[in-house]
């Protein structure tokens, strides 16, 4: 199998996920329901943190423009919001894959990023990390295949400007991206291209400074404390650790026996782990405590950022370092690149199965929750609903129940599901977190 097939299939799967995610309104999962409700109620951007504002502006603008144009169909607005959240990273990864498709080893690294960084953390697609990681991946792809000085410089500058206020992982991804952008200027004679590249590097360096300031400001915030404590809990996400194990096996054997990377043996670890991914939705039938859990996408996002940095640095080393090392020489052979690209494609194909399974479960949960809202009136206590049972527990987040309830209404006065903030009485919302939006004039159609 050449590199064209892994490239095309990976791109096809990226856009298939984007279409499916849009049509199933995946943006309403977890925090997304509160984000959309706040946007529609305020008529403006919902900036969760100022240091992530640029990603919010990018993803929320289409939905807000439709709302300001008079669209009041919440179903349509949720589809558009979901489509934007999926289409932007899909387009960025598509660009990165297209730039690297003629180099099998670099293409394999980018397919690996899709299969081990993006797919296992994208169910939480409201998270800014999805676009931030894709921005960095696309920047590396352009820098490593630099052709047109001005156009490529302008693209990297645009990505850097968005990255300035994107996500706290730019603390370490920012300097790395700035360095590869500056390195890409070697041999460039176009003054405009050099100037744009220099500005792009400054933007990525600025993104690191903004992230450092944000981390310092929120260091003792309870949410940030929980995030730091959960950094090593990525093992909870089977969709992440299974392909990660495949990368580890291929990497360790390749370091010891570089010529093995030319052989079909490279496909064996990937195939085994792909099979595990395929059967992962049903492991619970054998071991009940082991199951796919969408919130684990949120937990694994920090480790995924570290893995992305490693993949990008290895790609840079592949291009920049001399081929005197045996491993690098083998990786520059087309046959090794083709084998690795095919192996990474197997992981992406395997990862598509739990993605499909979780999406089907999400559709069922959303339909059930909407049925609760539209069939009752007044306040409905979450304690009276089976939200802690399978499969509803996969998607439940108590503080977003009110927002999701109001979004799913098709008539005024229908039910609002609330979770009590103590064990003495039911209160309609936690005033410090979730709220009950009004959304007058909006309805789910």
Question: What are its keywords?
Answer:
16 helices, globular, two-stranded parallel ribbon, 445 residues, mainly alpha
Description:
The chain has 445 residues and is mostly helical. The protein has one domain (4-363). It is 64% helix and 1% strand. The protein has 16 helices and 2 strands. It has helices at residues 4-23, 31-42, 53-68, 74-100, 104-118, 129-144, 149-163, 170-183, 191-217, 222-229, 238-256, 267-279, 295-320, 326-331, 334-374, 401-408; strands at residues 379-381, 416-418. The chain has a two-stranded parallel ribbon with strand order 1-2. Helix 1 (4-23) runs antiparallel to helix 4 (74-100), helix 6 runs parallel beside helix 8 and helix 8 (170-183) packs antiparallel against helix 9. The radius of gyration is 23 Å and the shape is globular. Mean pLDDT is 90; it is low at 423-432.
Provide a short characterization of the protein structure:
By secondary structure, the protein is an all-alpha fold. It contains 16 helices and 2 strands.
Overall form = globular
Count of individual helical segments: 16
Output the structural class: mainly alpha
How many whole angstroms does the radius of gyration measure? Answer: 23 Å
Distance between the termini: 46 Å
Count of individual domains: 1
Give me the secondary-structure topology.
Layout: H1 4-23, H2 31-42, H3 53-68, H4 74-100, H5 104-118, H6 129-144, H7 149-163, H8 170-183, H9 191-217, H10 222-229, H11 238-256, H12 267-279, H13 295-320, H14 326-331, H15 334-374, E1 379-381, H16 401-408, E2 416-418
Parallel strand pairs: 1-2
Helix pairs in contact: 1-4, 1-15, 2-16, 3-4, 4-5, 4-6, 5-6, 5-11, 5-13, 5-15, 6-7, 6-8, 6-13, 7-9, 8-9, 8-13, 11-12, 12-15
């Amino acid at each position: 199998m050449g590199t064209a097939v892994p490239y095309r299939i990976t791109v096809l799967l990226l856009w298939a996920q984007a279409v499916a995610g849009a049509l199933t309104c995946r943006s309403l999962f977890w925090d997304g329901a509160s984000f959309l409700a706040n946007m529609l109620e305020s008529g403006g951007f919902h900036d969760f943190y100022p240091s992530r504002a640029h990603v919010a502006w990018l993803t929320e603008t289409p939905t807000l423009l439709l709302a300001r144009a008079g669209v009041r169909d919440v179903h349509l607005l949720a589809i558009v919001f979901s489509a934007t959240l999926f289409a932007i990273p899909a387009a960025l990864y598509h660009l990165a894959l297209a730039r690297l498709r003629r180099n099998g080893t670099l293409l394999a690294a980018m397919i690996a990023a899709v299969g081990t960084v993006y797919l296992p953390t994208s169910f939480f697609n409201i998270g800014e990390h999805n676009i931030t990681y894709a921005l960095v991946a696309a920047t590396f792809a352009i820098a490593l295949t630099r052709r047109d000085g001005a156009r490529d410089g302008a693209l990297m500058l645009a990505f850097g400007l968005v990255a300035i206020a994107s996500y706290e992982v730019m603390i370490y991804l920012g300097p790395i991206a700035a360095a590869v952008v500056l390195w890409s200027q070697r041999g460039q004679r176009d003054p405009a291209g050099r100037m744009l590249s220099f500005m792009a590097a400054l933007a990525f360096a600025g993104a690191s400074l903004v992230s450092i300031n944000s981390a310092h400001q929120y260091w003792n915030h309870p949410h940030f404390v929980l995030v730091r404590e959960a950094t090593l809990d990525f093992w909870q996400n089977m969709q992440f650790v299974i392909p990660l194990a495949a990368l580890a096996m291929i990497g360790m054997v390749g370091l010891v026996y570089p010529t093995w990377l030319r052989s079909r043996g490279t496909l064996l670890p990937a195939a085994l782990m792909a099979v595990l991914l395929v059967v992962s939705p049903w492991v619970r039938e054998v071991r009940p405590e082991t199951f796919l859990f969408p919130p684990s996408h949120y937990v694994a996002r920090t480790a995924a950022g570290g893995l992305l940095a490693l993949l990008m640095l290895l790609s840079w080393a592949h291009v920049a370092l001399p081929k005197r090392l045996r491993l690098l020489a083998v990786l520059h052979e087309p046959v090794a690149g083709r084998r690795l690209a095919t192996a990474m494609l197997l992981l992406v194909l395997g990862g598509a199965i739990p993605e499909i399974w979780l999406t089907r479960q999400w559709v069922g949960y959303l339909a059930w929750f909407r049925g609760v809202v539209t069939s009752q009136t007044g306040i409905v206590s979450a304690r009276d609903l089976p939200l802690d049972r399978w499969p509803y527990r996969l998607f439940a987040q108590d503080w977003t129940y009110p927002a999701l309830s109001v979004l799913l209404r098709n008539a005024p006065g229908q039910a609002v599901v609330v979770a009590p903030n103590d064990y003495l009485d039911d209160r309609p919302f936690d005033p410090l977190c979730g709220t009950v939006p009004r959304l007058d004039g909006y309805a789910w159609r």
